[in-house]
Design brief:
Elements: H1 3-21, E1 26-29, H2 36-44, E2 49-52, H3 56-70, E3 74-78, H4 88-97, E4 101-107, E5 134-136, H5 144-162, E6 169-174, H6 208-219, E7 225-229, H7 236-244, E8 249-251, E9 263-264, H8 267-270, E10 283-287, H9 294-302, E11 307-311, E12 326-328, H10 332-339, H11 347-365, H12 374-383, E13 389-393, H13 397-405, E14 412-416, H14 426-435, E15 442-447, H15 448-453, E16 467-473, H16 479-482, H17 484-487, H18 492-496, H19 505-510, E17 514-518, H20 521-533, E18 539-544, H21 547-561
Parallel strand pairs: 1-2, 1-3, 3-4, 4-6, 5-6, 7-8, 7-10, 8-9, 10-11, 11-12, 13-14, 13-15, 15-16, 16-18, 17-18
Helix pairs in contact: 1-2, 1-5, 3-4, 3-14, 7-10, 12-13
EC number: 2.2.1.9
Cofactor: Mg(2+); Mn(2+); thiamine diphosphate
Pathway: Quinol/quinone metabolism; 1,4-dihydroxy-2-naphthoate biosynthesis; 1,4-dihydroxy-2-naphthoate from chorismate: step 2/7; Quinol/quinone metabolism; menaquinone biosynthesis
Length: 565
């Protein structure tokens, strides 16, 4: 065995053992030659689950879904060249959703960059500002200091990905041939010398003096306090605090707090920028990540609070409402636990609740008098979600429909790629979730453009039986008919909308998925239970709709629910 290959097998094996000890249990590989030593080392590790997905873009989104579902770092690894660039959409999504993707890009030795060598591009820092940090492994590992440097990079990279706020990192690893192990040569997994770094975390909360000096004077000096929950997963302790507070909690569907007794879930329907002095807050308290509701953002920018407090343990804090005044470095559960000990007047909560309840009342019989539309399909899906299920919402109209209707369940988890809001990986992300969570049924609500854009999500050997797809096919998308600007342009149909006549039926046949279709209200309701009860295959229910009818229904629903005083 050459000294180079001997050192490589030791260091690659030790790297894999190192990331295992620091929490990595899942790896999604995309095949290639340059990545072979890394791929083989992961595959041969006895405690790491590996999967192979050929399309790097889909592979990265599948890994993102696994990481989100398991709340653990996940490795993606690809060969050299343009393969790494295909990771970019998922890496950006992971960055803005704070998901710890470990992006491992195999590379050619540095001296061969820009020398017209095959599959060789500039891979260092290839993701720019959309990773927390980019690391470069040494190409030669013979010297003791090079080995120490390799081990230092492995530990530092995992720490960086897992430090709050979590996020993706890149490790670019130039690999010199020969790198395939010969017969009898093995990777070395030495747990005692892997040099994993243990990180001990402590709670982040406000001490009593700071609470009394900085927070109490603000919240006790006003009558109108509003809480806005951004994207995130529900914490029961926070729900308990909300249920003790007489404070409205504006909860987009992706915040997962719609089940709180003080939750407001229809803000996107009844709010408008010109409203509504009675709803304007004196104090705004926010936590979590982005919000879907454009109307909420416009309303708060037009009617800013006197104080805006954002709760976040660390990292940069955005200012989407143009009113940020205070950042509290506390966990939200600790802050709201302290806040719930105070008493607040119910009048402001009742004002918000009145507007929200009006929309709920209109929703009960709204669809009976109207032509079948996409909004009705979504309403039925949300109403019939089984207990302990998961809902995934694709961008663009799918997530908006669901947010307009809202969800008040404490046994359903909702996810969407709202870090960057792209249509390019929604199906792959849902598949990643479903394969790592086989005991729950996962539903994906998607439109035709998002679905067909990510059709390679089905091109792998891991399609989960517990995934059900509700596909709204209006043959080209309807969002540009909802926005005032495009609708006034004569080029709307040819250059904004994407007309297509594709059906998912042939895709379902190609990938052995169970398929249903509906062209009317009667067909939809007749087939829905059969779709719901299928347990042996990925299920796809394609509902063909008229985009103009869906547009008019959507606008009518909003018009009926507008706030008036």
């Amino acid at each position: 065995m050459s000294q180079h290959r001997k050192d490589l097998l030791v260091e690659v094996g030790q790297f894999v053992e190192q990331v295992y000890q620091m929490g990595v249990r899942e790896v999604v590989l995309s095949p290639g030659s340059r990545v072979a030593p890394l791929a083989l080392a992961f595959v041969r590790h006895p405690h790491i689950k590996t999967r192979t997905v050929s399309d790097e873009r889909s592979a990265a989104f599948i890994a993102l879904g696994i990481a989100q579902q398991t709340n653990s770092p996940v490795v993606i690894a690809c060969t050299s060249g343009t393969a790494a660039l295909d990771y970019a959409p998922a890496v950006a999504e992971a960055f803005y959703q704070r998901i710890p993707l470990i992006v491992l890009t195999a590379d050619r030795p540095t001296e061969w960059i820009d020398q017209w060598d095959g599959q060789t591009i500039r891979q260092q820092n290839i993701f720019g500002g959309h990773v927390k940090k980019s690391f470069q492994m040494p190409v030669d590992l013979t010297h003791d200091e090079a080995k120490w440097y390799r081990r230092r990079i492995g530990a530092e990279a995992l720490q960086k990905a897992l430090d709050y706020p979590q996020g993706p990192i890149q490790i670019n690893w130039p690999l010199r041939e020969p790198f395939y192990p010969e017969e009898g040569e093995e990777f070395v997994y030495d747990s005692e010398n892997a040099k994993a770094v243990k990180v001990i975390k402590s709670e982040t909360y406000l001490d009593q003096d700071t609470w009394e000096e900085e927070i109490l004077p603000i919240v006790q000096s006003v009558k109108k306090i509003l809480i806005v929950a951004g994207q995130g997963q529900r914490e029961d302790s926070i729900v308990e605090s909300f249920n003790q507070l007489n404070i409205p909690v504006v909860s987009d569907i992706i915040s997962n707090y719609g089940n709180a007794t003080s939750a407001i879930i229809h803000q996107d329907v009844f709010l408008k920028a010109e409203c509504i002095e009675a709803l304007q807050p004196d104090v705004l308290i926010t936590f979590g990540m982005s919000v879907i509701s454009k109307n909420l953002k416009l309303f708060l920018r037009k009617n800013p609070p006197k104080y805006h407090i954002h709760l976040q343990e660390g990292g940069e804090v955005p200012d989407p409402f143009m009113a940020l005044s205070t950042v509290v470095r506390s966990t939200p559960d600790a802050f709201f636990d302290q806040l719930s000990e105070l008493e607040f007047d119910e009048e402001y909560l009742e004002e918000w609740k009145s507007a929200d309840e009006k929309v709920k009342a209109n929703r009960i019989d709204f669809f009976e008098l109207l032509t079948f539309s996409e909004l009705e399909v979504v309403n039925h899906l949300l109403s019939e979600l089984p207990e302990n299920s998961v809902l995934h919402l694709a961008n663009s109209m799918s997530v908006r429909y669901a947010n307009f209707l809202g969800l008040e369940r404490d046994d359903v988890d909702v996810y969407a790629n709202r870090g960057t809001s792209g249509i390019d990986g929604s199906t792959s992300t849902a598949i990643g979730h479903a394969i790592s969570d086989p005991d729950r049924t996962h539903f994906l609500l998607t439109g035709d453009l998002a679905f067909f854009y990510d059709r390679n999500a089905f091109w792998n050997n891991y399609l989960p039986k517990n995934l059900k797809v509700v596909l709204l096919n209006n043959q080209g998308g309807v969002i540009f008919r909802m926005i005032d600007g495009p609708t006034r342009q004569p080029e709307l149909e040819e250059y904004f909308e994407t007309h297509q006549r594709t059906s998912a039926k042939f895709l379902a046949e190609e990938f052995q998925c169970k398929y249903w279709e509906a062209n009317s209200r009667e067909e939809f309701y007749f087939s829905y239970d059969s779709f719901l009860n299928e347990l042996e295959n990925v299920s796809i229910f394609e509902v063909f709709t008229d985009k103009n009818i869906s547009k008019n229904t959507f606008k009518a629903f909003k018009r009926e629910g507008l706030y008036s005083k």
